[in-house]
């Protein structure tokens, strides 16, 4: 039996919450904070659980993923290379042509305003590309 989109989103949100709780250290707190900032910017953001365990936030496509490793929380923006980053939050995957990532180490604080600006841009980028794709398909 297939789950509805709403059921899948609920299940994903629960899995992300469980991941945050299970981490039970600075990584969980960091992931929780970044999740909250993402939801503040885009209340319609869709939470997904992809690739057998990666928290993912989407709106008309993937905005970013939130991976946790032993020494870092990595937020990978799917289309990060297309986003303006005047605060230089991106500090990983800088050589790629599409993705960019923010590696957050224990004790580091991320500039909330700059992070929110990246989320806004990513949503706008995805939404803009969706409308371009629709226009192409109409022909």
**Order of strands across the widest beta sheet?**
1-2-3-4-5
Q: Which range best describes the helical content: under 10%, 10-25%, 25-40%, 40-55%, 55-70% or over 70%?
A: 40-55%
CATH class: Alpha Beta
Please give the radius of gyration in angstroms.
15 Å
Number of helices: 3
CATH names the topology as Aspartate Aminotransferase, domain 1
Distance from first to last alpha carbon: 36 Å
Shape: globular
- Integer count of domains: 1
Q: State the total count of DSSP E strands.
A: 5
> Any low-confidence stretches, pLDDT <50, length ≥5?
133-139
CATH architecture: Alpha-Beta Complex
Name the average pLDDT.
89
Largest sheet: 5 strands, antiparallel
| Order of helical and strand elements | HHEEEEEH
**Percentage beta strand:** 15-25%
Q: Class by helix and strand content?
A: alpha+beta
Write the SSE topology.
Elements (H helix, E strand, L loop, with lengths): L4 H19 L2 H16 L4 E5 L3 E5 L3 E7 L4 E5 L22 E5 L7 H27 L1
Antiparallel strand pairs: 1-2, 2-3, 3-4, 4-5
Short précis:
The protein is of the alpha+beta class and 139 residues long. It has helices at residues 5-23, 26-41, 112-138, and strands at 46-50, 54-58, 62-68, 73-77, 100-104.
Task: Describe what this molecule looks like in 3D.
The protein is an alpha+beta fold and 139 residues long. The protein has one domain (5-138): Aspartate Aminotransferase, domain 1. The protein has 3 helices and 5 strands. Strands 1-2-3-4-5 form a 5-stranded antiparallel beta sheet. Helix 1 runs antiparallel to helix 2.
């Amino acid at each position: 039996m297939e789950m509805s989109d709403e059921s899948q989103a609920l299940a994903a949100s629960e899995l992300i919450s469980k991941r945050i709780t299970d981490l039970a250290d600075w990584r969980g707190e960091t992931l929780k904070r970044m999740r909250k900032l993402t939801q503040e910017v885009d209340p319609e953001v869709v939470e997904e659980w992809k690739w057998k365990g990666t928290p993912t936030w989407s709106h008309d496509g993937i905005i970013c993923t939130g991976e946790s490793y032993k020494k870092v929380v990595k937020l990978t923006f799917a289309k990060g290379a297309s986003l303006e980053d005047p605060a230089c939050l991106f500090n990983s995957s800088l050589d790629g042509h599409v993705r960019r990532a923010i590696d957050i180490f224990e004790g580091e604080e991320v500039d909330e305003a700059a992070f929110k600006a990246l989320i806004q841009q990513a949503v706008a980028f995805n939404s803009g590309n969706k409308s371009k794709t629709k226009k192409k398909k109409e022909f």
